[in-house]
């Protein structure tokens, strides 16, 4: 099951479970649409994988399957990558 991480790794923008601007790679690294658009090749800076739109978990399933509360943020954001 997807973690549904709560934020963008680059800019720390909140990305709630219903966010339509959340993108993930196969390792679930999570980025907002704005940061993804600025990444070279729109690829994950961690693994080089494709960043695709994160699916939205139905609200009725969130209580039994909550999103992650662990925030992962690059110490210097992604500024060096842009």
From TrEMBL:
Q: Tell me what organism the protein belongs to.
A: Azospirillum lipoferum (strain 4B)
Protein's recorded name: DUF1272 domain-containing protein
List the InterPro entries.
DUF1272
